[in-house]
């Protein structure tokens, strides 16, 4: 199954532009129904806001929807949607709430503000890749610890929780197709003294961009 990207977690951000407040929310959703529920929740929560603009992209069926919710056409929902398209993020719902501050921003100002809110909120959420992984572990002496980390990074592996004992135990998730190359490389580097172990295969989401605190 091909890999794809989703928000690593839900997030909320806020900033002000010429007295208007922009409150952004991002969620990982799996269905259009879930996305609609999130949008309804935000409309209820921020019922007194001038605008609750939204967009969502659902991988299954290639569903994409957006709304400017009263803002000039093309200044809110579509720019928000483009943020996620550019990043290749799917199964995502975003709502940006605007409390109008009394100063008009113009179409260019609105486009920039809604784009910024969507980008900031995605950065806060972080991004995770969903794919098939090789679940691996290797034990090595301390003098080879840094080299093993480099080899794992070279095949786009993700380190697990490292254990320090008589030797270092390094669990890692590797893209499944990279396992043979990684195994061969470690064997070659250590003249067969070390052998990584394949514990199994797993299909899951793993963060590639850490959420911004």
The overall pLDDT average reads 93
**Which regions are unreliable across 5 or more consecutive residues at pLDDT < 50?**
none
> What count of helical segments does DSSP give?
5
Strand residue percentage? 35-45%
Q: Give the ordered list of helices and strands.
A: EEEHEEHEHEHEEEHE
Please outline the major beta sheet: 6 strands, antiparallel
Alpha carbon gap, first and last residue? 32 Å
Coarse structural class: alpha+beta
Can you walk me through this structure?
By secondary structure, the protein is α+β, with helices and mostly antiparallel strands. The chain has helices at 32-45, 77-87, 106-125, 145-154, 179-189, and strands spanning 4-7, 11-17, 20-28, 51-58, 63-67, 92-99, 127-140, 158-159, 163-164, 168-175, 197-209. The strands form 2 sheets. Strands 1, 7, 8, 9, 10 and 11 form a 6-stranded antiparallel beta sheet that branches. A 5-stranded antiparallel beta sheet has the order 2-3-6-4-5, with helices on both faces. Strand 4 (51-58) and strand 5 (63-67) form a beta hairpin. The chain is elongated. The two termini are 32 Å apart. The mean pLDDT is 93.
